[in-house]
Amino acid sequence: MFKRHVLLVAVLLTLPLTEFSTIAMALEATINKEITSTLQDQQSVSVTIYNNNLALVKDQRKVQLTSGLQKLAIRDVSGQIRPETAMFRSINSPGSFTTLEQNFDFDLLTPEKLLEKYVGKSVTIIKTNPVTGEEKTESATVLSANNGVVLKIGNRIETGLLNNLGRIVYNDIPANLRDRPTLVTQINSKIAAEQIVELSYLTGGLAWKADYVAELSPKEDSVDLSAWVTLTNTSGASYNNAKLQLVAGDINQVQENIPRVMMMRNKAEIMADSAATPMAEESLLEYHLYSLDRQTTIAENQTKQVALLSATAVPARKELVLRGADYYYQSSYGNLGQKLKMAVFIEFDNKEMSNLGLPLPKGIMRVYKKDSAGNAQFVGEDTIDHTAKNEIVRLKLGESFDVTADKKQTDFKVLAKPAKGNNAFESAYEITLKNAKKEKMTVTVQEPISGEWQIITESYPHKKVNSHLAVWKIEIPAEGSTTLSYSAIVKY
Question: What whole-number distance in Å separates Cα of residue 470 and Cα of residue 387?
Fold first, then answer.
């Protein structure tokens, strides 16, 4: 091959200058010829979307390649493609071509951009006489397109074209100005054939999140759960009949100080897309992969929803929690608050025996309960993190209206130091728990206590959950009250 190239160059050097120029121009045209691939060539597309505004796109198209050097312009790629991640290959003829370079043309066609590209070039100006309607054509050179247009027409310089009812006619569209985001690859093909090629790349502008709806049973002992995936596409491209997969988990990405092209979007269309069955789930490294069992279209500037999972009669538990603070035990405080609020929690087990047992992606879970007329009312929401199978889902819904507490410090003593550099305190507390409901309630009292501590007296037994937390379970009668009294010695 090398000898043939040397021989060709030697022959060309013997030709007259005019013939040499003609052949050189023909060779340059061959190298620079461009094959355009549009969405009509697309055979399939798959989109895998991650939690952190990242997606993997695999776009397969049918193209007719010629033998030798050529450029393939792949239109309608994502406007937020990361070109350095692009991979281009042949599906039906692996190894039949090599990719020499690739260029992402994101300078999209607009009147302003077109004018900028013609600075220093000739255009045609057509002006219309506002009285007679007669049109006059002149040739002009664009001198500047910065905050308006400056033209040289003959021997004069002219601005304010639009005010003079004129319009500009361009000879052509510059090669690097595209009407859609386009990836141009220069390839060297060994064969001339119709091929199925695949372009895969990472892109921003595609995101998903999980949203959950839980309906609490009348007895507040179970929930019916459904989950939706909300997809948002602001990437600058549409993905028609795409194979959709979602990855739940926190994937590490290197943060580079490289400017990205951000395609600004100003509208979103919300579409609910119901699924016949929940999305299939499988493990992927240390993440979880969810696959939609059918194709779906993710249109540009669109938000859509697809069903993720559903479960009924999941056993649940309601808990009212009064939580204190560890600084109570170091000084004298007296009253520690009137009508302290009880936090309301709902929790359930993510287990198969509880009619669930699926990896749950992070998202917002909204809880509803039906009123006496059978209308579902919103009763609170909370965010859940990625929750593995067999873990507990715990939601804080708000604060109780009818169950309150008063807390006061009834005694405080500074004890003799038990050792050099240590402090010791003895303090006593009284917590009055009040219940305005017509049924008895159980409250969990949590007292964080730092240092080395010991409960020395108490009206109800506590449980030492860990080295810094004492917990009491206190029952309050209907429309009544219960008082918890205890004292503690704390060493720091």
Answer: 27
Instruction: Name 365's Cβ contacts closer than 8 Å, sequence gap at least 6.
Output: 212, 213, 214, 381, 382, 383, 384, 393, 395
Whether the CB-CB separation of 428 and 483 falls below 8 Å is answered with no
Residue where the block lists tokens 């520690």: 336
Tokens 């049109």, located at residue:
135
Domain residues of the chain, as ranges?
Answer: 111-169, 314-491
Return d(Cα 324, Cα 101) in angstroms, integer: 64
Secondary structure E strands in 162-205: 166-169, 182-189, 193-203
pTM reported for the whole predicted model:
0.69
How many contiguous H segments (helices) and E segments (strands) does the chain have?
Answer: 3, 30
**Which of 233, 225, 255, 219 lies closest to 360 in space, CA to CA?**
225
Mean per-residue pLDDT pooled into runs of 10, the chain (492 residues): 45 53 46 80 94 91 94 90 91 92 76 83 86 86 86 86 72 74 90 94 93 95 94 92 86 58 38 52 69 89 90 96 88 78 95 91 94 94 92 96 93 82 87 95 95 94 95 97 95 85
Burial annotation 95-133 (CB, 10 A radius, 16+ → b, else e): ebbeeeebebbbbbeeeeebbbbbeeeebebebeeeeee
Closest among 88, 58, 84 to 73, alpha carbons compared = 88
List, in sequence order, every residue forming a beta bridge with 481; answer none if it has no partner: 434
Across the beta sheet with 156-158, the strand order is 156-158, 150-153, 135-144, 122-128, 166-169
